[in-house]
Amino acid sequence: MKIAFLNMYNGLVDRGAETFVKEVAQKLAIRHEVVVFQSGGPSGKENYKVEKIPMKIDWARKSGAGSFLSLLFLDYWNRLVFRFSLKTLSKIVKEKFDIVVPVNGGWMPALMRLATWVYRGKMVISGQAGMGWDERNNLWCFPDTFVALSSKAKLWAKKVNPLIRTVYVPNGVDTERFTANGPTFKTNLPKPIILCVGALTKSKRIDLTIKAVANEMPQIYRAVDVFTLASEPFHSFEIVLVEAMASSLPVVANKDDIRREIVGRAGVLVDPTNTETYAIALENAMRLRWGKRPQNQARKFSWDIIASQYQKLFRKITK
């Protein structure tokens, strides 16, 4: 099969969606012809083809999320995605990819839907945006299959557009890189240590710190006792949770259906807006003996398993 992934941000930042593209593309490229269209350059470690689409990006621009223009996909970032998508359009039609996976939302799924209709290709959307306006737009672009990252998102998607095929395939974790064994990050911090990993506001330039230690994340996970993340419940999937569990860490996360499916019995779920119960949950996570539970839970999300599910899906819809 010829498979194309489109994500303007690949090669520029490393978030959940970018990790999804790199990991699944890497696994699928073993048996298929895979091309990733991105505005960043290749790292040199890819076994798939990188098609660089250069874009001038003003990173100082604030996110327009929730604004009137963003709802119409006319804010700065959505206009960038539109231009990026236009630049790839002729290449998609010319190459006649069997499967096209647009990742950025906005105008991208609409344009790719038109392109694949021209030559009768298939479009698959992975619900990286989370339940909300962007995902509704993705569903209304009538992909051949919508991939929900949680059982809750699958039920939600079926209500939004009952006319399309919806399946559940979560994101994953590299269980060979994130393990309990191996070098540990050196720190003078007193025990116990609680770790939280996430992107913060640009003005604080936390991204520079994250980039500086990005390659050392497995060692950092091994240096702490508990991992926590108190994200709002709309987030579709948080790879850092399974990275932490793969490193044998119990996790403390928001008590919602999506986190419950990810964490299972390998952590504590809590309402983090109640700081007293949040603090108790962190103490309990440090006190309990978790054994192999976190690692066993993380193995369910191995990228090998996830990529295999995508391969089966792609084969099924291209028959």
Automatic annotation (TrEMBL):
Q: Which ranges form a coiled coil?
A: none
Q: Which InterPro entries match?
A: Glyco_trans_4-like_N, Glycosyltransferase_grp1
What residues does the Glycosyltransferase subfamily 4-like N-terminal domain cover? 16-177
The record's section on Gene3D superfamilies has:
Glycogen Phosphorylase B (3.40.50.2000)
Species source reads Candidatus Curtissbacteria bacterium GW2011_GWC1_44_33
What is the protein's name according to its record?
Glycosyltransferase subfamily 4-like N-terminal domain-containing protein
Q: Name one GO molecular function term.
A: glycosyltransferase activity
